[in-house]
Amino acid sequence: MTVPAPGTRTREFLDRSPHGLLIDGAFWPAADGRTFSTTDPATGAVLGELARAGAGDVDAAVAAARTALEGAAWTGTTPAERAKLLWRLADLLEADLQQLAELEVLDQGKNLRTARFGEVPAAINQFRYYSGWATKILGQTIPTSLSRTPVGREVLAYTRREPVGVVAAIVPWNSPLLMASMKLAPALAAGCTVVLKPAENTPLTAVRLAELVLEAGFPAGVVNVLTGYGHEAGQALAGHPGVDKVAFTGSTAVGKRLLRAAEGNLKRLTLELGGKSPAIVLPDADLTEAVEGISRGIFDNGGQVCVASSRVYAHRDVHDRLVEGMAAFGRGLRLGHGLDPEADLGPLVSTAQAERVEGYLREDGLEVVSGGRRSGALGTFVEPTVVTGVAQDHRIVREEVFGPVVTVTPYDDLDEVLAWANDSRYGLAASVWTQGFSSAHRVAHRIRSGTVWINCHSYLGPELPKGGHKESGWGYENGPQGLENYLETKTVVGLL
Question: Is residue 199 part of a domain?
Answer without folding.
Answer: yes
